[in-house]
Predict the 3D structure of the following.
Amino acid sequence: MDIRKRVEEIEGELIAMRRDFHRHPENSWEEVRTQQKIIERLEMLGIPCCKAAKTGVLATIKGSHASGPVIGLRADIDALAVSEESGVDFCSEEEGCMHACGHDTHISILLAAAEILNEMKEELNVTVRLIFQPAEEYIADCGAPYMNREPLVQECERLVALHIWSKLESGYASLRYGPVMAAADTFDLWIKGQGGHGALPHQTIDPVVAGAELVNALQKVVSREVDPLDPAVISITSFQAGTSANVIPDSAHLMGTARTFNTELRERFPEMIDRIAQGVAASTRTEIRLDYHRGPRPTINDRACTDTGLRAAKEVFGEDHLVEFPLQMSGEDFSLYDNPKCLMLLGGGDPDESLRYAQHNPHFIIREEALKLGVEYFVRYVAEYSKEHAPEGK
């Protein structure tokens, strides 16, 4: 089969699928319509499938000559609690929910790749497992560990994924050996004070002042306790306290995230954050409690998986369009699968760098011509892997 030609033939259908998923985003563990649409599409193609991990889907394409390995292709399917401001004419129809990380493109790319791979069964020496995973965005209870326990996933000798990346220009891709994305933990800091009248602060124990001190103090953890050559982030992302202009509240709640590639540093983060918190508590007479939530570990590409991927990617993008994109402090629960694996960053950004809005931004948008390149990469990866397992003499 002429893979590139076949991909181009279904490009219109691919874009239409993506726009439908974009119009109807669903948050983590709520991907009911998304799951149903995936199943409908797979059933239309005659690909056996089943529900998995509540709102996920697993499907299988068995090569006609397959006698050995199973390769898994994974796409995450959830959206984010973001109100869309992209201005596209297929904007989200769900208030306060948006595919602001590009998972709508991942679903569509994998479904289109499934169509072509199903047509190529006679050429394949391997079995392909399609993994549509829910809840990648929900760090505290993400979907990968649930899918990881599925026997159909455990059978896979390797897993392959891609992530559309708005900061990388469309037409380019990055597939690197070793670390790709950081460990991504989250935490809550609960501050208990004593409320009272805003005009009488001396009669209160002010949790707002304590929270402000805590935000500033936590900045010193990375700047003064971490090797400057060791990438690390501690960010406070939410500060909630009070509802009135003249009342000092009883309590405050801070939320944040901690990220690193260093597993030893990651183990130290809870102690470091709590030590700072208790110092602030003592100086402000408040009580502060830390709840620390483990998220995905660092995403690290397996060498053999990446070798195959680079051969496929060179055919798709050409060597001059494969780049070493910088390490990302964003997290990816793909890391929580036990299988050997690799993740490629697929460029989806505008040629005009000023229009490349970051993932999770309400203006986030990708160039749709990138979709067909993602499809071709998945298909060529499977074809390369199948060649690796061809019987001797063939």
User: Anything to note?
Assistant: The chain is about 35% helix and 25% strand. The first helix runs from residue 3 to 9. The longest strand covers residues 158-169. The CA atoms of residues 73 and 160 lie 5 Å apart.
